[in-house]
């Protein structure tokens, strides 16, 4: 089976001026998270969509899905975790308990606040995860990358040609991901906040899927303004 995990566990502390998590803010005429879920609902290859939210937003999320999404039978809303990895494990545990995990099971993990993920990106993630076992959506770095250890002076300026900016989805063979997460030491678990980093730490290859400049993550107030502009361009 192919699963999509929409990671909506954040509280949006960097958005400022609102107590509402950023994934529930309005973009155009509906919440950001609904725009995101819709991109996965229309993909016929995805069997189940698992939305992971803070516990106190589960009912609210279900109400939004009822209100906005026509084909909602394959969407399940469950509680996320304290960290991104905890949230991901909650999703994997749910899949294992209710559907089982076989050698071919695939999971696409996606930020709920990236509402402009394209059908092509999703398709490429499915194909790469099936073929390679792990993939990450990226775009080439366009700005000069500066490394500073102390946050005050430049340590190095790497060659930009070799660097990419990470997006999502990040997609995996579920059994492989599950086994790697369970092999982490407590120290490793505490410092790893990204599933692809787990593969890298364990010397497992993660293949690149080409992203899009418009596949932005809504983190700050400016991002929401930009997202509304992108949405207007799409509808024109």
Automatic annotation (TrEMBL):
UniProt KW keywords: Cell wall biogenesis/degradation, Nucleotidyltransferase, Transferase
The keyword Nucleotidyltransferase is assigned to this record: yes
GO molecular function: 2-C-methyl-D-erythritol 4-phosphate cytidylyltransferase activity; D-ribitol-5-phosphate cytidylyltransferase activity
Top-level division of the source organism's lineage: Archaea
Any Gene Ontology biological process: isoprenoid biosynthetic process
Pfam families: IspD (PF01128)
Record-linked InterPro entries: IspD/TarI, IspD/TarI_cytidylyltransf_bact, ISPD_synthase_CS, Nucleotide-diphossugar_trans, TarI
HAMAP family per UniProt: TarI (MF_02068)
Protein name: 2-C-methyl-D-erythritol 4-phosphate cytidylyltransferase
Organism listed in the record: Methanobrevibacter gottschalkii DSM 11977
